[in-house]
Every structure is written in structure tokens, then in C-alpha cells.
Design a protein that fits this description.
- The complex is a heterodimer.
- Chain A contains 24 helices and 20 strands.
- By secondary structure, chain A is α/β, with parallel strands linked by helices.
- Chain A folds into 3 domains: about 180 residues, Thiamin diphosphate (ThDP)-binding fold, Pyr/PP domains (Rossmann fold, 3-Layer(aba) Sandwich), CATH 3.40.50.970; about 170 residues, TPP-binding domain (Rossmann fold); about 170 residues, Rossmann fold (3-Layer(aba) Sandwich).
- The N and C termini of chain A lie far apart (about 60 Å).
- Chain B is an alpha+beta fold.
- In chain B, about 25% of the residues lie in helices and about 35% in strands.
- In chain B, strands 5, 6, 7, 8 and 9 form a 5-stranded antiparallel β-sheet that branches. In chain B, strands 2-3-1-4 form a 4-stranded antiparallel β-sheet, covered by helices on one side.
- In chain B, a hairpin with a 3-residue loop joins strand 6 and strand 7.
- Classes of the chains: A alpha/beta, B alpha+beta.
- At the A-B interface, helix 9 of A face helix 1 and helix 2 of B.
- Bound molecules: thiamine diphosphate and magnesium ion.
Chain lengths: ~575, ~190
């Protein structure tokens, strides 16, 4: 029997029917009826962020660490505009989130009413899809469709804008099973003919490499399992983008580490020298490819991606396979096994010989000398002291982010939350809150830079209110480090506005919120301090004072190729030419 | 969306062929985009072209199936084969887009545009305008002692040619609908 209820109640009912247990949000005039319904139920927890941007990043952290869509509820006007950065971030990194916004009543739309904004207009380019619901009868069906679109195909953020009169009016509720999900049904199975062509290439390849990305993780646990099986069975080397870390275990002997602008020497050199590149769920992003003309010149390329627009967008590929990674890998393994599990093992053995020479360069080596903590050392110790935990790592954006990607090891998917495509400073702290909500007992650490962390530091209130023991591990170089590095390399060491002046006393700041603060500036006491952080049952701000002018290497400078990496300070003189310096 | 069946060695660039033969030549393509006729759908399509820096040379849109709430957007665009492929793939990603047909490569097609020309003048020029309109089979839909309004239907180049001829004869105003196009045959 269809039930009649108010639009506001429909929202809560639809979320419950979608299996939502947590909503991140912030109230306001245009969503009061929905907040009233939230007040009168216990099934869904509402987490009050301290800023709508924080709510959206928290929903992203929740989604990435759990594989379920994250949900946000914010008011009209400023609530919606504050959500824009988070939506764009989720769009760039293909994170499924559903954002519900309040809107002025339908009869006031277009009148410049108080807190009116053209939310669907503003968010059209930064959502996968969005809806303005003008009739209560369509509200529940639209919310179900929104979940469908967010989680199907290439995942992404969606937004449903709900005018206040639609929340008050009463109509019939549509349960998920009865909802019209529209015609949106992306293809998941890959073309068998091309898959077979790829199998033939795998059988013959002399210098193969798997180049994997966030698509593997988005595809789900089956995809990571199949990828591991494929790598073990073929014995081919594997690298991954920033977004893909954890899709293959870092402890595996086929693992070459991350590739790209700050990727490992062996990963980038293998990409450059391979004769068969198998791109699985990555998108040839400009942080990965370096200069396009010189990108992996001698290879045949296969590309498995669920989004047809990713294929041939930047790099022309020989074997395009549109489909879900899990489905395609399943078929690929089936065909490869049926044809006798062949590889050109002699040649691949030789290839490994070459790769091992590159590995021997040990591009991440560093020396902890003197009394100042090196950021690389801080992260190595963090790695050593936390690797036994099932730990979740978030990051902000900057040098610390790249060092975290280099020096922390990920064994499993969904353990690494970082803003890749958009590079959003201020992402990590709220994301860590979302992760901790999804995994209440896990060790959740946000590796932060002091400048990024300040961008959403108001979320300390959220962490305290919900007793979320998130650890804020701040690598404090008192610099906008990544900006400073570029100024050093490209702008004659003119450090224009890249100093973190007037920083707060982070320990006192923690204490002001009622949290624990730890200051560490001495390499000799670092281990004890990290242990103190891990064992403390509550939120911690860890102010780790590190070398101020450390640069992040290896680095492929803008406009250069994978085999033109800068390995250390000695390589940096005149490394970037005028053409490279216009690139970001 | 339809499954992408890719023939080995295929080198034409239809919407579902991912192995295009890329070149740097600029090509003009007519795309028919079938969309849900819902609020904002045209803004999504236009926003895609603006946001990603693609060209729109002509754009027409109208509902074609009232009960099914479908509209047809016909867009003429120019770009390298790779850009055209991207445009089609990006259009295909828009949730209310049902399908994208590239009429330029999917086989022969007919393209028509309707245009209205206001031509002002007297004496010799007026007679010449009327004579040319007759040759082009343009209809006179309005006339005063000093002006005509001609109606002309045809492919874009025919409209262009007629406009070029009318300009020295007193072309005062021109209104064009943009291209509507269909593939030929069943
Ligand atoms: C919102 C936003 N504004 C500006 C930037 C440009 N940016 C990239 S890294 C960076 C410096 C980050 O400094 P910090 O958080 O201290 O990290 P560090 O590089 O020092 O480790 C800046 C300003 C950005 N990525 N995001
Ligand atoms: Mg810093």
C-alpha cells in the first residue's frame, strides 16, 4: 500500500530505504522540515559539520573508505555554494556522494529571495547529474534515481535541490523497487574481441606493465582480488596512480610503487620503456603522463575504463575496452587461462632484470642527519609504528601528500583518501572524520601540511562532539611547501607569499577544543611521540616540526618525460625550461 | 548506452568506434543528440561545449516525441577527429542523453535549414533580388513597396550562397533556424 507523507519525511524514508546510516550536514531555513524529521527518528545518524565544505569532504571520506555512497544535507544559498568545492572534488576523483540541498519555495524561485541561489545551475558542471524537484510526488523517486546515478557506471557526486514547499506538501511515497531509474545503465561488460586481443598481447609482451588507478578501487573488492590474481599469475610488474594506491599490496614483489610527477624512479622508467602498457581504471592524467609526445613511446597500449570519454582523450590507445574493471578482468583471466596461461617468461625475466637495476637506485633514500626531523623520516616512522594496525590514511594537499604516497605502504583498497584530481587543500581533516564515522574502531590518521590543515580546522568541533579519535599528523614546515618548491625551481627562489606566517600554537589549539596536542621537533623523541598519539583515545593534533626547505623528489618537471626525472637537489639547475614553466 | 562493438582494423570514426584514424584535419560534423525533454537539458549540452572549449556552429532543439518526452538536439560542430570523438563521448556521459548519432559518418543524410531574408531596395536591385529568389526557389512571404521577406529552405551552403547574393542587393535582416538533419533511407 502506497503511503502518504510529507516531502520532508520522504527524504528521511528514502535515505533509510537506501541503507544510509550517516548523514553529514548543516541546517538552515530551507531544510528545517527535513531536520525536524531527522530529530524525530533514530535510524540515521546526523553528523553536524562546522562548515558545509567539511560536510561534503566528510561524506567523501565516508564513501571512499566504505565503498558506500556518502550523504550530505545542507541548506539553500550559502549552504549550497559552500558545497561546491566538495562536489567538484568528488567529480574529479569519481567519488559517489549524494548531496541534498534546501531551496526557497517554488513560488519564490527566480525572485532573488533570501538565501536563494541557482543551485542546479551552479552545480551543473560539478555534479555527475542534478535535479530540482518541483513536486512532492516526484521527490522520493528522484532521490532513489540520484543514488542509482551516483553509484552506477563511473561513480560521482549528484545533487537534489528540494524547495521548502515541496518538503511541507504531502504525497505518496515511492519505494526504491518502484522508482523509475531512467535509462541510465552504463555498459559493464567489455568487448570480448578486444579482450582477446589484449590476451594475445599479454602472451607475447617482452616488457609489460600494469598501470592501475582509482577505477580498480571504485569497481569494488572483486576487482582488486582479480587484479592481484592476474599480477601473480602473469608475473608482470604493476604500478599505480595516486588514486589507485592499495589496489595491489605494497608488500607484493611485483609492486613498483606509485608513478607520475612524484612517482618512483622504477615505476616511471618502466612506463617509459615498456612494450605493453595495460591501463586498468586510470585516465592518463597530466600528473601521470608528463609531456605527451614523449610518453611511453615504444608501447602498445590497452585501456580498460568504464567511461568511454576517458578513452583516447589524451593518449591514443591500441586496445580500448569499455567496461567495469571487475567484469573485464574476469573475462580477461578466463580467456587467458583457456588459452593456456602463456607469457613470454624469458623476456619478462630480462625485463625484471632491468627493473631491478632501476630499483637499486633507491630513489626514496634519505638521510636523517642532525636535530631537525626530515618529513621523509617522520613518515617512515609513522609507517613503521602503525603498519600493524588496519589503518586509514587521509591527506591534505602539498609536499606532505606526495611524501605520504611515497613512504606509507598500502596493502588494501579503501585505506587511502586523498584529493587527487582537484588537489583540494582542506580535504583531509574533514575526510578523516567521515572515515572514522564509517570505521569507528579503526586508526584514522590525516597526514597534513600546516597550511592545508588550517583551511578546515573548524572541524575540530565535529571531532570533539562525536568523540572521533582522528589523528591529525601535521608535517609543519611553516611553508606552503609545494608552492615554495615550485618557486625555488621555477621562479628564482622568490618565495612570494608561500610562508605560513602567524601560525597558531597547535598544542594550545588542540587544548582549546579539549583535545590532545603533541609537539615534536626532535628526531630522537619522535617514536615516543607517535606512540603517544596512536594510543591516545581521542582526537590528537600532532605538530611535527620538520625541515623547512626540503624538496619532494623524484620529480618529473613540467614539460618533461618519464625518463627525465629530477632525483635530488643536484639535478635541479635549469631543469625546467620556459615551455615547461607555463604548465601547472 | 549501446555496447561498443569495435571491429578490428576499423578506421572510420562512428560514435561507437574507439579506434579512430586520428589526424589534425578540422572536420565539420552534424550530431543528433536524443535527450529527455527535461528542465536544464539544453544547458547541460551547451555547458559541455562551453566548458570544454568545443565549437558550436549551429544548434537546433525541439521536442520530437511528446508522450515519450524526448527532444532532438541537432548540433553542427567542428574539430579534429579526436575532438569530435571526445565531444560524442562527453555528450554520451550526460545522464539525460539517450543516444548520440553522428550523421556525418553514419551514412548519407539530409540536412536542411530554414532562413528568412529581409531585403530592402527599389528599382533595379529590387527586380534583381526577386529574380534571384526565383532561381533559388525562395518564397516571398511578405512584401512592401520597398522590401521583401524571402523564405528559403535548403542545406547550409545554399542559404549561405543566397545570403551572399542578397547582401549587395539590400539584405537588411537575416534569421536562420540552424540545421535539422536526418539520415537517409530506412
Ligand atoms: C584550496 C587550495 N588552494 C591553493 C592550492 C595550491 N597549493 C597546492 S600545495 C599548496 C601548499 C600547501 O601547504 P601545506 O599544506 O603546508 O603543505 P606542504 O606542501 O608544506 O607539505 C598550495 C597553496 C591548493 N592545492 N588548494
Ligand atoms: Mg607546509
Amino acid at each position: 500500500m502506497a503511503q502518504k507523507m510529507t516531502g520532508a519525511k520522504m527524504v528521511v524514508q528514502a535515505l533509510a530505504d537506501q541503507g544510509v546510516d550517516t548523514v553529514f550536514g548543516y541546517p538552515g531555513g530551507a531544510v528545517l522540515p527535513i531536520y525536524d524529521e531527522i530529530f524525530q527518528q533514530n535510524g540515521i545518524r546526523h553528523v553536524l559539520a562546522r562548515h558545509e565544505q567539511g560536510a561534503v569532504h566528510a561524506a567523501e571520506g565516508y564513501a571512499r573508505s566504505s565503498g558506500k555512497p556518502g550523504v550530505c544535507l545542507v541548506t539553500s544559498g550559502p549552504g549550497a555554494t559552500n558545497a561546491v568545492t566538495g562536489l567538484t572534488d568528488a567529480l574529479m576523483d569519481s567519488i559517489p556522494i549524494v548531496v541534498l540541498t534546501g531551496q526557497v519555495p517554488t513560488f519564490m524561485i527566480g525572485s532573488d529571495a533570501f538565501q536563494e541561489a541557482d543551485t542546479v545551475g551552479i552545480t551543473r558542471p560539478c555534479t555527475k547529474h542534478n535535479w530540482l524537484v518541483k513536486e512532492t510526488s516526484k521527490l522520493s523517486g528522484t532521490i532513489h534515481e540520484a543514488f542509482h546515478v551516483a553509484t552506477t557506471g563511473r561513480p560521482g557526486p549528484v545533487l537534489v535541490d528540494i524547495p521548502k514547499d515541496v518538503q511541507f506538501a504531502t504525497d505518496y511515497y515511492t519505494p526504491p523497487a518502484k522508482a523509475n531509474l531512467g535509462h541510465y545503465q552504463p555498459q559493464v561488460k567489455g568487448d570480448l574481441e578486444t579482450i582477446t586481443e589484449l590476451v594475445e598481447a599479454i602472451e607475447k609482451a617482452e616488457r609489460p606493465i600494469f598501470y592501475t588507478g582509482g577505477g580498480v578501487i571504485n569497481s569494488g573488492p572483486a576487482a582488486t582480488q582479480l587484479l592481484r590474481e592476474l599480477v601473480e599469475a602473469t608475473g608482470f610488474p604493476i604500478t599505480s596512480t595516486l588514486m589507485g594506491l592499495g589496489c595491489y599490496p605494497a608488500s607484493g614483489d611485483k609492486w613498483l610503487g606509485m608513478l607520475g610527477m612524484h612517482g618512483l624512479y622504477e615505476a616511471n622508467m618502466s612506463m617509459h620503456g615498456c612494450d605493453l602498457m595495460i591501463n586498468i581504471g586510470a585516465r592518463f592524467d597530466d600528473r601521470i603522463t608528463g609531456v605527451l609526445d614523449a610518453f611511453s613511446p615504444g608501447s602498445r597500449k590497452a585501456h580498460i575504463d568504464i567511461d568511454p570519454s576517458s578513452i583516447n582523450k589524451v593518449i591514443r590507445v591500441d586496445m580500448p575496452i569499455v567496461g567495469d574493471v571487475g567484469h573485464v578482468l574476469e573475462d580477461l583471466l578466463k580467456v587467458w587461462k583457456a588459452r593456456g596461461r602463456k607469457t613470454n617468461s624469458g623476456a619478462v625475466q630480462k625485463w625484471w632484470g632491468q627493473i631491478n637495476e632501476w630499483r637499486a637506485v633507491d630513489c626514496l633514500k634519505f638521510e636523517q642527519k642532525g636535530k631537525v626531523i626530515k618529513p621523509q623520516y617522520a613518515l617512515s616512522r609513522l609507517e613503521a609504528l602503525t603498519k600493524k594496525h588496519d589503518r586509514y590514511i587521509c591527506t591534505e594537499v602539498g609536499q606532505h601528500q606526495m611524501w605520504a604516497a611515497q613512504y606509507l605502504n598500502f596493502e588494501d583498497p579503501n585505506r587511502w583518501m586523498t584529493s587527487g584530481g582537484l588537489g583540494t587543500m582542506g580535504y583531509g581533516f574533514p575526510a578523516s572524520i567521515g572515515v572514522q564515522m564509517a570505521h569507528p574502531d579503526a586508526l584514522v590518521i590525516n597526514v597534513a601540511g600546516e597550511a592545508s590543515w588550517l583551511m578546515n580546522m573548524q572541524e575540530m568541533g565535529t571531532a570533539m562532539q562525536y568523540r572521533l579519535p582522528v589523528k591529525q599528523f601535521i608535517l609543519n614546515n611553516e611553508r606552503l611547501g609545494m608552492v615554495r618548491q615550485w618557486q625555488e625551481l621555477l621562479h628564482g627562489e622568490r618565495y612570494s607569499e608561500s610562508w605560513s606566517e602567524s601560525l597558531p600554537d597547535f598544542v594550545k589549539l588542540a587544548e582549546a577544543f579539549g583535545a590532545k596536542g603533541i609537539l615534536c621537533s626532535d628526531p630522537d623523541t619522535l617514536d615516543d611521540a607517535i606512540m603517544e598519539m596512536i594510543t591516545h583515545d581521542g582526537p590528537v593534533i600532532f605538530d611535527c616540526l620538520v625541515t623547512k626547505h626540503e624538496n619532494c623528489f623524484p620529480m618529473i618537471p613540467s614539460g618533461k618525460a618519464h625518463n627525465q626525472m629530477l632525483m635530488g637537489e643536484a639535478d635541479t639547475q635549469g631543469a625546467i625550461d620556459a615551455k615547461g614553466s607555463v604548465l601547472v | 548506452m549501446s555496447p561498443l562493438k569495435i571491429k578490428k582494423g576499423a578506421n572510420s570514426h562512428s560514435a561507437y568506434n574507439l579506434r579512430p584514424n586520428f589526424s589534425d584535419v578540422q572536420e565539420t560534423h552534424t550530431l543528433a543528440v536524443i535527450v529527455d525533454n527535461e528542465a536544464g537539458v539544453l544547458a547541460r549540452v551547451i555547458g559541455l561545449f562551453a566548458g570544454r572549449g568545443y565549437n558550436i556552429e549551429s544548434l537546433t532543439v525541439a521536442e520530437i516525441d511528446h508522450s515519450g518526452k524526448l527532444s532532438r538536439i541537432t548540433v553542427v560542430t567542428t574539430g579534429t577527429p579526436q575532438a569530435i570523438e571526445q565531444i560524442k563521448a562527453q555528450l554520451g556521459r550526460i545522464v539525460p542523453v539517450h543516444r548520440v548519432n553522428d550523421l556525418t559518418v553514419d551514412g548519407p543524410s539530409v540536412e536542411r535549414e530554414l532562413a528568412l531574408f529581409k531585403v530592402e531596395g527599389t528599382g533595379e536591385k529590387r527586380v534583381e533580388a526577386l529574380r534571384l529568389a526565383d532561381i533559388f526557389r525562395a518564397n516571398v512571404v511578405d512584401s512592401t513597396l520597398e522590401s521583401f521577406v524571402f523564405e528559403l529552405t535548403g542545406p547550409t551552403d545554399k542559404i549561405d550562397a543566397f545570403a551572399d547574393l542578397m547582401r549587395p542587393l539590400g539584405l537588411a535582416e537575416l534569421a536562420r533556424t540552424g540545421v535539422a538533419a536526418l539520415s537517409r533511407g530506412a
